[in-house]
Specification:
The protein has helices at residues 51-69, 105-115, 164-176, 187-195, 198-203, 235-246, 250-260, 289-314, 339-347, 374-397, 404-408, 418-424, 432-447, and strands at 6-12, 16-24, 30-39, 43-44, 47-48, 75-80, 86-95, 124-136, 139-142, 152-163, 180-186, 205-210, 215-221, 224-231, 273-276, 285-288, 327-330, 351-353. With 448 residues, it is α+β, with helices and mostly antiparallel strands.
């Protein structure tokens, strides 16, 4: 049964919107059965700026994926990015009623719920609460406290915060495109699950996902996410610079960047020249590749320095927080020629380009393992993982009787009763974040 379970990742990016449908094969790898993409017109710097256009683009991507795969898409896992995302560290504790019982999931859930009571700035909401390490009574540095005895359970948390309005706008677009939102994930986390190996996360690694509108950063150490940041510029500002610097139109600038662009100006000779047709009978323009790469180099350097500052803020220079595996670059912008060398030169850290093929089935299309699909693959993985967990939990909870009040909480109309009850069974283990997603769904339902 599980094998046929499909999930859909929807990456709402600044440049493109991708819908990816997939399922797990018998080797636990992901088999992508359909993919659709559309040009994203209503998103600026990772934030929805034009609802109508975004809805159209989502529908277009979804329809294409449906016609390729023959599956009907109902619910999707969506990624969220944008300059409004920030992260903070916080530690919290709970005192357990009975220290003679072992710590279980519900204790950790209580602790996570406690963190959710943090007072945020107006208009902000907590998106993820990610436990770092736990402390039971006075014993510190515990990775997994479940099954231990103790009266006081404490943990350090990595809390990711975003703007309520931006999150709701994404929800609104997905809902208006006729889809259900099964989960929302931070995009750098999705990309990380698609391109990083467990060894890299253990050793310490910084994932830099260079998209069109934003550059996302996720830092892992000892297998745990330690720092996330979204830097509000990406590949599009490079295109803009080329457009201004060479006085050409955007389409030509983008083509130049992709075809001839390089992040390392020393590479090109003065004599290499590209001729670009002029507009409507004007003379063609001649641009030297050396100039082109100078423009690109200046902007890329600025982006990398921004990211490197975040890595330094995390504390990469200290012995304990050293990122041994260095940097992994992914996203469409990572395909720029000589970018890896420039990153190594600026940061002094090892770098590699991350392709999302680690979790894909062997016979997958080459296009899918392009770095520009890293986020979509990660979101799809998240969807499949969530389904699998729900199946496991449902099997566990089948003999449990669901308490009355738990179900009655958020049922809008009588005819919908059948649906939520089925959903509510695994309620026992819902993360706060899933509750938040449900809260968002309710909000959107009532906003109709």
């Amino acid at each position: 049964m599980e094998n046929n379970k499909i999930a859909v990742g929807l990456d709402i990016g600044t440049t493109k919107i991708v819908a990816m449908i997939g399922r797990k094969n018998e080797y636990d790898k992901i088999e992508v059965v359909g993919i659709g993409k559309a040009k994203s017109l209503g998103v600026k710097r990772g934030v929805v700026s034009n609802i109508t256009q975004t809805i159209q683009s989502i529908q277009q991507a979804v329809e294409e994926a449906e016609s390729v795969s023959g599956h009907k898409i109902e619910d999707v896992v969506v990624g969220i990015a944008g300059q409004h995302i920030r992260s903070l560290h916080h530690s919290d504790y709970i005192t357990r009623d009975n220290a003679d019982e072992v710590i279980d999931d519900s204790d950790i859930e209580d602790l996570v719920n406690q963190v959710h009571k943090l007072v945020m700035l107006p208009g902000e909401e907590i998106i993820h609460v990610l436990p770092q390490e736990f402390k039971v009574d006075s014993q510190a540095d515990i990775k997994e406290p479940i099954g231990m005895y103790g009266g006081r359970l404490e943990a350090n948390f990595h809390v990711v915060v975003g703007q309520v309005s931006s999150i709701r706008n994404i929800g609104r677009c997905v809902k208006s495109a006729g889809l259900d939102l099964s989960d929302i994930t931070l995009e750098p986390l999705a990309s990380a699950s698609a391109v990083l190996s467990q060894e890299e996360k253990e050793a310490g690694v910084a994932l830099i996902d260079i998209g069109g509108g934003t550059t996302d950063l996720a830092i892992f150490k000892d297998g745990i996410i330690r720092h996330t940041a979204v830097i509000p510029f990406g590949g599009n500002v490079i295109t803009d610079d080329i457009k201004e610097g060479c006085s050409i139109i955007e389409k030509q600038a983008e083509l130049l960047k992709v075809k001839f662009g390089s992040a390392w100006p020393g590479e090109n000779k003065e004599t290499e020249i590209v001729s670009i047709p002029g507009l409507r009978g004007r003379e063609p323009k001649e641009i030297t590749l050396k100039n082109l790469s100078k423009i690109i180099h200046a902007r890329v350097q600025e982006i990398i320095e921004h990211v490197y500052l975040e890595i330094k803020n995390y504390g990469h220079e200290t012995q304990k927080r050293k990122l041994i595996a260095g940097i992994v670059l992914t996203g469409g912008g990572s395909q720029l020629k000589h970018l890896r060398q420039l990153v190594e030169y600026i940061t002094g850290m090892d770098a590699r380009i991350g392709f999302p093929n680690e979790h894909l089935a062997g016979d997958s299309d080459d296009i899918l393992s392009s770095p520009s699909y890293a986020t979509a693959v990660g979101l799809l993985m998240q969807g499949l993982h969530k389904d699998q967990k729900e199946v496991e939990v449902q099997e566990e909870v089948i003999e449990d009787v669901v308490p009355e009040n738990q179900v009655v909480e958020n049922i809008p109309e009588p005819e919908e009763i059948a649906e939520p009850v089925k959903e509510e069974k695994p309620k026992k283990k819902k993360s706060f974040f899933e509750k938040f997603t449900e809260g968002l769904k309710d909000f959107l339902d009532n906003a109709e």
